[in-house]
Design a protein that fits this description.
With about 400 residues, the protein is an all-alpha fold. Among the domains are: about 110 residues, no CATH class; about 70 residues.
């Protein structure tokens, strides 16, 4: 049966909830700002406003790649913790875990084609199979392979895609000004059926035909393996015993990660610093995990602080309902960008300086709703459905009365 609230790792829920804030910001800012939703002329118009430049810069330095790296890392942690608990109880881990992945894949495909065309659940489900296959690797090998793939997986995947010619003229045509304007028109002025068709076209060219999905599977797998290795060491499970070590890690990794990511950002701006593209990417690949270590250790220190633990624990209910909150975030972004069913229809118009505070307000609402919901129910709605389909029996939903 699913773990009870008493058996959950509060640190894991808290970190997952924090990662979801970054996921929301990164998804909304980049999806509305990039060539999925905005033409080159529209993007240039946004960048003429210094407030938009500030919002983009903030997202690039503090959020981009950091949120999904932390989210994927936590998937690996959760995988290992679940495997240990199921095997210790004598449960059929293989059967339960594979069924759980299959249900997640179904959720991901529904989300990808009917709600949010930048869904990551489908990648996590597929990559979870690779993690399952590699679970018996020796600890050192697991860490080494994980770090190697985490650092090089996406660049290698993209390089192979470029060499294969998958990202050819047809892909370029899908992101021409005419194609973007046609997509905007379908999203803003069309019906839901028009949205499905336009989004499916986007998914095919931006995800499948150019091989990007393979790059993201490698990207996720490296982070899954590192997360599984960390859980294998028991570091998160006994975080309260390791606070002095985490404090040292925080004081080193937080400032170092910020310096690296600022340098990465500056070297990526040719009008500011004349630097080769590989230098920007190299600094970024190192800066992301270093800054994430700073985020994670800092939050764990807050979680175990007598004075500030209430602040860190605000994120935990969001993390306990991570699947529900992630899918709802896609619905929220859609209501802002698309015009059907009462949507605002702001694709190509909404500016980053508006998107960023909007994300903060909506996430605050998710915090409130998650706290309210979990005081009454044991699981989020989609978490309950996921468990029911995984275990073949619906678990009790209401909290027991005290």
């Amino acid at each position: 049966m699913p773990v009870t609230s008493a058996k959950r790792l509060g640190e894991l829920d808290m970190l997952r909830g924090f990662a979801l804030l970054g996921v929301l910001i990164a998804n909304f800012v980049w999806f509305s700002f990039g060539n999925n939703s905005a033409t080159e002329a529209q993007t240039a118009g946004f960048l003429a406003d210094s407030a938009n430049v500030a919002a983009i810069s903030f997202t690039e330095i503090f959020v981009a790649d950091k949120a999904n790296t932390l989210f994927a890392f936590l998937f690996g942690v959760g995988f290992w913790v679940q495997m240990e608990r199921l095997e210790a109880s004598g449960a059929a881990f293989r059967k339960i875990y594979l069924r759980r992945l299959f249900v997640l894949l179904v959720f991901g495909l529904i989300n990808l084609y009917l709600i949010w065309p930048w869904d990551i659940l489908n990648v996590y489900a597929i990559t979870g199979l690779a993690l399952f296959a590699l679970r018996r690797l020796p600890a050192r090998v697991m860490l080494g392979v994980g770090l190697l793939i985490a650092l090089l997986g996406r660049p290698v995947g993209k390089g192979l895609s470029d060499l294969s010619g998958l990202a050819g003229p047809a892909h370029e045509a899908a992101f021409s000004t005419e194609a973007i304007l046609a997509r905007q028109d379908a999203w803003v002025n069309g019906t839901y059926a028009d949205w499905i068709q336009a989004s499916a076209h986007l998914v095919f060219y931006d995800w499948v035909a150019n091989g990007l999905v393979v790059a993201w599977i490698l990207y996720a797998l490296g982070r899954f393996l590192v997360g599984a290795w960390v859980a294998r060491q028991g570091w998160l499970q006994r975080a309260s015993d390791l606070l002095p070590v985490m404090r040292k890690l925080f004081y080193i990794s937080m400032p170092l990660g910020l310096v690296l990511e600022i340098c990465s950002f500056l070297t990526g701006q040719s009008q500011i610093v004349a630097a080769p593209g590989w230098l920007h990417q190299a600094i970024h690949m190192i800066g992301v995990p270093v800054l994430d270590i700073g985020y994670a250790t800092g939050l764990i220190l807050l979680f175990h602080s007598a004075r500030w633990n209430g602040l860190a624990r605000l994120f935990a209910p969001v993390g306990r309902m991570a699947l529900t909150n992630y899918v709802v975030q896609g619905v929220f972004i859609g209501l802002v960008l698309y015009g059907f069913h009462g949507g605002l229809g702001l694709a190509g118009q909404i500016e980053p300086k508006v998107v960023l505070p909007l994300c903060l307000v909506f996430y605050a609402l998710q915090m409130v709703v998650s706290h309210w919901w979990l005081r009454r129910y044991r699981f989020g709605p989609l978490e309950w459905l996921w468990r029911a389909l995984t275990y073949g029996e619906p678990p009790a939903m209401r909290q027991a009365l005290v």
